[in-house]
Design goal:
By secondary structure, the protein is of the alpha+beta class. The protein has three helices and three strands, in the order ααββαβ. It has a single domain, classed as Histidine-containing Protein, Chain: A (2-Layer Sandwich). It is rod-shaped and about 75 Å long. The chain starts with a helix and ends with a strand.
Length: 104
């Protein structure tokens, strides 16, 4: 009976370790916590752009990976690009901003 408990404990520990390793982040894939953090950053950036009267949130796409925010889409002026980058950098949690926005 004692051997069965030891075997089950070892099996449970192996499964738990395999599960933890499966959720770990890699350079190309985020862990669960990082994905949630990036989702929050994306939402905050979209809200900040929406609150900026000169910018149109429908024109700017926002994606975040490990704190790096990528802005893309087509905007009306170079001033809009500059303002969107400025607004994005002011959001907490943003490590850097990649600009892929283009002029219409």
């Amino acid at each position: 009976m004692h051997d069965i408990k030891r075997y089950l404990s070892a099996a449970f520990l192996a499964v738990a370790l395999a599960g933890a390793v499966g959720c770990a982040a890699t350079s190309k894939q985020e862990g669960t916590g990082e994905y949630v953090d990036d989702s929050v950053i994306t939402t905050k950036v979209k809200a900040a752009i929406l609150n900026e009267a000169t910018l149109k949130v429908a024109e700017i796409n926002v994606e975040t990976f490990k704190g790096v925010v990528q802005l893309s889409g087509f905007v009306s002026s170079a001033a809009d690009i500059t303002k969107a980058i400025e607004v994005t950098r002011a959001v907490g949690g943003v490590k850097s901003v990649k600009n892929d926005m283009r002029l219409k």
